[in-house]
Amino acid sequence: MKIVPGLLGACLVLSACSATPPVTPTVTVTAPSERLSSPDTIPATTDPATIKWMDGFCAAIHGYRKRTNEEAAPGTAEPTSVADAQKALSEQLDGIAARTGEVVDRLTALPPAPVPLAETVRKGFVTKYTTARDRARDAKATLDRAKPGDQASQHPAAEALDLAQQDVDGTYDPIAPMMKSPELMSAAASAPSCKL
């Protein structure tokens, strides 16, 4: 989920040069293509605990993608003042902090991974989502403490929003990192939440 750097830069330049607040671009997270192993590499039977674990893992990641797309739906009016733009940016930061925080909670609530690769992937994902959550939460707190109408407060907040989105880049496909494990791929093929 990347904001086009040029568009973000243009928004920031416009906000610095005019009284009209910047319009932040809408971000849509696309679903990755489904990549399951070929039948000759999938074990004949897969432990139900592994399937359950993969189902929970996929549900956490796909839930983030779906919620992000729902919350990015068009329909919000453009801000008409710097204070309105601050409020809109604060809401965006709050949204990403809440969504990434939910993923962290769901991933840490999973039982120990049944396969070492899965545990390694989970820890990596938890680190990325935690970093994004903390960055967005801290930027929102700083922005909310700024005086309403303070244009200078928007640049660091917009930059933090962009960085929080970059923090979770590469985490939208819960199956791809598991491809080296036939057992995990078999579990993903059987887990309802791993199917798009």
Question: Can you give a write-up of this model?
Answer:
With 196 residues, this protein is mainly alpha-helical. It has helices at 5-17, 48-71, 82-109, 116-145, 154-167, 182-190.
Question: In short, what is this structure?
Answer:
The chain is mainly alpha-helical and 196 residues long. 60% of the residues lie in helices and 0% in strands.
Keywords:
disordered N terminus; 196 residues; mainly alpha
Question: What portion of the residues fall into strands of 2 or more residues?
Answer: under 5%
The arrangement of helices and strands along the chain is HHHHHH
- Summing up helix and strand content along with how strands pair, one would put the structural category as mainly alpha
Largest sheet composition:
none
Q: What distance separates the N and C termini? A: 18 Å
Mean pLDDT comes to 81
- Number of helical segments? 6
Shape: elongated
Given as residue ranges, the uncertain stretches (5+ residues, pLDDT < 50) are 1-42
The value of Rg in angstroms is: 19 Å
Query: Helical amount among residues, as a percent range?
Result: 55-70%
Question: What is the total tally of β strands?
Answer: 0
Give the topology.
Elements (H helix, E strand, L loop, with lengths): L4 H13 L30 H24 L10 H28 L6 H30 L8 H14 L14 H9 L6
Helix pairs in contact: 2-3, 2-6, 3-4, 3-5, 4-5
